[in-house]
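#structure-requests
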Amino acid sequence: MGIQIIIEKCTGCTLCIKACPFNAIRILDKKAVIDLHKCTICGACASACKFKAVFIEKEPVKCQLPDITGYKGVWVFIEQKKGKVQSVSYELLGKAHELAKKLNCQVGAIFIGNNLGDQVDELIIYGADIVYLVEAPEIANFQDEPYTNILINLIQKYKPEILLCGASTIGRSLISRVAVKLKVGLTADCTGLDIDPEKKILLQTRPAFGGNIMATITSPNYRPQMATVRHKVMQPIAPDKHRKGKIIREQFPAKVYVSRAKLLDIVEEVESLVNLTEADIIVSGGRGMGGKENFKILEEFAQALGGAVGSSRAAVDSGWMPYSHQVGQTGRTVAPKIYFACGISGQIQHLVGMQSSKIIIAINKDPEAPIFKVATYGIVGDLFQIVPALTKKFKENLRK
């Protein structure tokens, strides 16, 4: 790769000097001269030259793609906290089971921790064909380094075609490290997964450009194809106690389990009512609530229904509700049986997080609010009159 000035074309106009960010060009005898010790061959001078007097010769880029033959199987990283499998893992096993059928392969579950044997059968019941079990006291709880080392070792040994992981705090921290070390692609926060019927590659759909469009992303040249999926986006399959599976126990040298960070304690978040992601009924408020104090109306309503309180991003940004209650693209994804949207306009960023709800009830004074397009039932009116009236009515009927 090199750069030179074509003397016959150069007029000494100094346009290249003004364009050069490294002060690598000067005029000598009315011709441009490049200081090759300063020049980085960024190409700014060539773009600025009206006379095409700057010539850059570039070597062709040689890109050798990796060999992806021999990769087969759909894997799911099984997230556990204090030895208990998190529900997002069962959801991903359900989707993996569906994808594996289209690829004619098996579903693998990566289960890392300690004393996990009593839950292995559950993973098979919910769709796993093979459970790769790694147990040791040092890895009882999640830590970035050892879990990354284990997962990379397993991938290199067994060569899965697809790897799915929950888009949780643990999943996001782990899987991005794995992707970087393996030099493969990763699509985060997917809301849809499918298999291209012709190319047999993973189609990964996620919101893009602030949620204004849905983009489908592929990784045709690298393996494994990796994606994270939010909680409550996918559905677990019906448990089948007659399913049979295989358990492969793996052990690694002690150095694989070493972590430079020390885990001091695990502090559980205290929910004021019901865990938002597990709730069957959610009452959410948006900008239309008008202020922090007005969320007490929703809290009382949720308490009467035995539900949880959520909020839109606008309410969180305004300081009316904590981030842990935010529903949407940048918050939590929920799929309750009933979702009340109170004073929420229904922008795409919010809809991404709750549109899988079985019943959506919208309460808004604006009849043109986008939320009504996805709502099962819509109530046009003043939520400060409607919600207390509903609370009173539910309390009366639930007491009977």
